[in-house]
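Q: My labmate handed me this sequence with no annotations at all. I'd like to see what the chain might look like in three dimensions before we decide whether it's worth expressing. Could you predict it?
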Amino acid sequence: INRIIFNIDDIDEKPDIILVLGNPNILDRINKCLNIYRKYKSIVILSGGALMPDNKTEAEAMRDFLIINGVNINDIILENKSKDTIENIKYSVDIINELELGNNIKISLITSGYHIRRAMMIFNNNKDKLNKNCQIIPNYSIDSSCISDNWYKEDSGRKKISVELEMIDYMIKNMGYKPFEF
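A: Here is what I predict for the chain of 182 residues:
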């Protein structure tokens, strides 16, 4: 299971776009985004339409955090309609298509380490909808409750991994998705 879920390198490479997928526990992901932004000053797309406890969308909550921490508001684009990972990617691809960045772009995809394989699989299965050539750079945050060293020790970690494996299996068998290999 560790080889399937966690065997992915986090790559430090300059992206044209930093794409952050929302989640109720967004702090780890948004801190990863902030570190990459400070180093490379790339465009940031914040994707997540689910409501947070303060009635802001995940994207709005992430934007507010980034602005407070020095990210230029003009470098931030919100995608706040999505309710799941497939929609995160679908609506973000629409936004990327509208940007004038040239034909060859690099996209840093930020999500949790246990979720990166499925997110990469979804993105790669949607590349044909892009009007640009793109390279996806996996950049994942460390969700300390669910890493390769401890996911099996707690019910919450086992459940996260079980859901990821079930979703990957379902998407391959029932939705025609191709597995993503690194």
